[in-house]
Amino acid sequence: MTMRFLRHTAARVGDVQPPSATQRRSPNPLRLLPEEPRDRLTGTWRDARPGRIKRSFLDAQARNPGGWHVVGASTELGADRSVARTLGDREVVLWRATDGGLLAGPGTCPHLGALLDDCEVMHDRVHCRWHGLALGPGVRRDWLTYPALDDGVLLWVQLPTDGEPPTDAPAVTVRPPGDASFATVVSLRGTCEPSDVIANRLDPWHGTWYHPYAFSHLSVDDDASSDDRLVVDVAFRVTRRYAVPVRAEFTCPDARTIVMTIVDGEGVGSVVETHATLLGHDRAGRPTTVVTEATIAHSDRKGFGVARALSPLLRPAVASTARRLWVDDMAYAERRWLLRDRGETFGY
Ligand code: FES
Ligand SMILES: [Fe+2]
Questions:
Q1: Exposed end of the chain (fewer CB within 10 Å): N or C?
Q2: Identical fold between 35-63+172-341 and 68-158
Q3: Which of 9-13, 194-198, 320-324 has the lowest mean pLDDT?
Q4: Minimal CA–CA distance to 308: which of 297, 295, 319?
């Protein structure tokens, strides 16, 4: 306990205290937190203990996704045409019912095998491009639809998945109210499995060293954390001199999802939910996984209404930051898969 106390009170490079209530009320969320020169930045490897990361990872992997997979953003699917996706080596077609709800089924037409991509949608049915066969719920016994859900930000499909007893609904993240937030969704593919994406995020310690352009002053609060919850104080870099400090918590509602929620500081209630979906395997047996990340920004500041109104202009900036981080993080996840494929493991 004494050691823990010392660890949290000792002033050292990399630590930052959560913002005080006064700071939170300040009209300016920026704090003067100059970036440490690279040669004075302390490496984080001592804190990033493999055994600690493994415990969180195993806890996350034990959480049943119930066969539900994120297949894209709600905005990617219109009312009039279908979209085909690959999911767990299976082709899946997505389209919308007349009431806007999500429908899904096998992506191959049962007549002569056409891919049901970019097909016309009329009266709840998707019409095959080749000969116009109308497909939908309850139409044919040899072409059964899958449970599907549009949660307002993301699209989900339930497929029979090994080791996952089916559940009635996916574990949709508790998000800030839609009329007081704006959502940005990015996606990126890589050669790895969904578990590698989750493992990357369960190592928050890499943040300051690996992404110095985005994070600094990061420390994990061991006393507030447990195997199923990581509590992190971190500053989001804005410029070389200024940053926005927040307290965030990471949780895994299921084995393929990790959610960061801002619990103190600027933007309390904002969430970043990261979903990993296995698309399939290539001929050499290498997996392809897509990361779909939804950033749902929220603030109770007066000015946030303006930010929300400007969200079409702000989204590209949010998306660009998320993508840049994921280019690095995907390299981490791909490396983790490659080591496992070679039979080399480091700690877990
Ligand atoms: S292949 Fe679909 S209707 Fe013929
Ligand atoms: Fe990262």
A1: N
A2: no
A3: 9-13
A4: 297
pLDDT at 301: 73
CATH of domain 68-158: 2.102.10.10
CA of 338 to the centre of ligand 2 (A): 18
Residue 339, classed as helix, strand or coil, is helix
Residue 324 CA, ligand 2 centroid: distance in Å? 10
On the question of pLDDT at 342 being above 90, the answer is yes
The pLDDT tens digits for 110-149 are: 999 999 999 999 999 999 999 999 999 999 999 999 999 9
- What tens digit of pLDDT does each residue of 275-291 get? 999 999 999 999 999 99
- Integer CA distances (angstroms), 221 to 10, 24, 162, 175, 226, in order: 13, 20, 36, 24, 10
Q: Whose C-alpha lies nearest to ligand 1, atom 3?
A: 131
Helices (H), 216-344: 304-309, 311-341
| Distance from C-alpha of 6 to C-alpha of 324, rounded to nearest angstrom | 35
Q: Give ligand 1 pocket residues (Cβ under 6 A).
A: 109, 111-112, 114, 128, 130-131, 133
C-alpha of residue 100 to centroid of ligand 2, in Å: 35
Q: From CA 94, how far away is CA 115, in angstroms rounded?
A: 12
pLDDT category, 13, cuts 50, 70, 90?
A: very low
Secondary structure of residue 209 in the 3-state scheme: helix
Confidence of residue 293 (pLDDT cuts 50, 70, 90): very high
- 35-63+172-341, which class in CATH? alpha beta
Which atom belonging to ligand 1 lies closest to the Cα atom of 128?
2
* Boundaries of every domain in the chain: 35-63+172-341, 68-158
Q: Got the DSSP string for 290-304?
A: EEEEEEEEE--STTH
